[in-house]
Amino acid sequence: xxxxxxxxxxxxxxxxxxxxxxxxxxxxxxxxxxxxxxxxxxxxxxxxxxxxxxxxxxxxxxxxxxxxxxxxxxxxxxxxxxxxxxxxxxxxxxxxxxxxxxxxxxxxxxxxxxxxxxxxxxxxxxxxxxxxxxxxxxxxxxxxxxxxxxxxxxxxxxxxxxxxxxxxxxxxxxxxxxxxxxxxxxxxxxxxxxxxxxxxxxxxxxxxxxxxxxxxxxxxxxxxxxxxxxxxxxxxxxxxxxxxxxxxxxxxxxxxxxxxxxxxxxxxxxxxxxxxxxxxxxxxxxxxxxxxxxxxxxxxxxxxxxxxxxxxxxxxxxxxxxxxxxxxxxxxxxxxxxx
Length: 339
What we know:
By secondary structure, this protein is α+β, with helices and mostly antiparallel strands. It folds into 3 domains: 5-70, Uridine Diphospho-n-acetylenolpyruvylglucosamine Reductase, domain 2; 75-143 and 174-226, Uridine Diphospho-n-acetylenolpyruvylglucosamine Reductase, domain 3 (2-Layer Sandwich), CATH 3.30.465.10; 229-338, Uridine Diphospho-n-acetylenolpyruvylglucosamine Reductase, domain 1. Helices cover 26% and strands 26% of the residues. It has 8 helices and 20 strands. Strands 6-7-12-10-11 form a 5-stranded antiparallel β-sheet. α4 (199-205) packs across α5. It is globular.
């Protein structure tokens, strides 16, 4: 077990590429190493920030917390039948690599979530989703270690209280647990889901009439690569804002003023709006302010053009939120965690 390191740069550990330093930094590769850190911190009594792939975080200052990077790896088959497979996956596994691993095995259910940045452990935190699929569709359980006691606890999928980009880990038990493993139940006889977004159009362009899981994954990868910047080339955290959910009554009012408004059905009779469309209608797509900007191909994405501070990205996100509020009377919410 490596002892804590001091004054470690986090620039390469967050996809925005913000150059901040951790006063105290540790990484852990096993549950035992994590429990060791928990015991160590009973003396230190420091606040802790858990870092995974750094793909959903914006640092606006040097973190005062002790930063622990979750590097737990491994993909284990727990049970295997003719219809489905149950997997136990380390929270530190790269999400996209895990998706490709499953697609190659012809295990279906997460192929629509291809190319989402970050690690597996971040998935249940915010119930990641894209192109008509969400993590909750295949999540069986989430294994955790309680930060205070070092005790193990497993949450069933139902106990995770998954919602739109929400879970119990962002609400009721926020900062109380460290996710160590996620269990997935995947199908061996999965039907492909090509109904959402432009997947079918992409498959048509690929001249594929009867798509496999691999075809759908490739289509999603093509779409995402055409719209979203590669974090290794242009700092970003993917979608910066959530799609807002509003009441049916409010939607009808907006529809009268803006007939072209894009919407989707949401739970409890509500309506989900496309945040990217709202931002684009405000004339902010491609907007640049010093070294930060709204991406020219996808208005949901805020990018770091080079050496910008996290505070500058925060300020631009404030401008976007306020402009959308002034135009549509709709409040955008950040999807990215701010520190």
